[in-house]
Amino acid sequence: MPELPEVETTRRGISPHVIDRTVREVRVHNPRLRRRVPGRLRGELTGQRIVGVDRRSKYLLLNATAGWVIIHLGMSGSLRVVGESAPLSPYDHVEFVFDNDSALRLRDPRRFGSVLWTRRSPARHPLLVGLGPEPLSAGLTGDYLRQRARGRRTAVKHFIMDGRIVCGVGNIYASEALFTCGIDPRRAAGRTSLRRYRALAAAIKETLERAIAAGGTTLKDFTREDGKPGYFRHQLQVYGRDGLPCVRCGSAIRKTIIGQRSSYYCTVCQR
DNA sequence: AATCGCGCCTGACGGC
DNA sequence: TGCCGTCAGGCGCGAT
Hints:
This protein is of the alpha+beta class. Helix content is 24%, strand content 23%. Strands 1-6-7-5 form a 4-stranded antiparallel beta sheet. Strands 2-3-4-8 form a 4-stranded antiparallel beta sheet. The chain binds a DNA duplex through residues 1-3, 6, 32, 34-35, 58, 72-76, 91, 108-113, 127, 151-154, 158, 161, 163, 170-173, 217-222, 239, 259-262.
């Protein structure tokens, strides 16, 4: 999926197309996403104006006049803005048609995404309420990570991918950030020093910011709202590079499985 | 409390 | 060419 930089890229891309637009019609072509698209979405959202597009972790929040649409792109989801009569793909499951005849479409081949509706503040929604600080906010610091890691034996990579600790750090950027600050992804979270956590917090922010600047990473499915890919793939230093030389020292990048997820690291540069 | 690992889906790819 | 196993950017949930 779309990790945080891809979601943020999407947020920025769709904002000018949807803000101040009124939803003329909600079309649900297939409600069977990871969680069923609520039937009341159509009745509750139709006729409302979109006043803002926010993001919390990897959730996109369409702020409508009387509620919020909560969208998660799952593993293979993307949003695009097209003319309402543009050809529909079998993977375009949900569509918001606006008053200017444009449409915001969720395309998601694997259907791991979600489209939900809430009238209350999305921060209080059960799926969002337990989330840790935003990685790009002042809430993520080395001191905070060190504090939360106390006593935990889980691998540091798995630890920073736990959304309750810090949200929005996915599999690609976890590997990249750990390479940047020279930490072995297998190292126990509770046995990682404050000095290392300070470097890690900085590396997470730097990695995510650079990826956002490049428009995200397109491996396969991800596209921006105009259908174009993101370009951070060309800047990946370890992800997907097993067997290839480390960009820093030249030794072979190794792949291992941590918490059932592929992880890539340099055995020389990362300790 | 922390940790483990399954399940939700489809498509792409490599090996035989 | 075709079949089959494996893997994929996420994450919630139940069991231990």
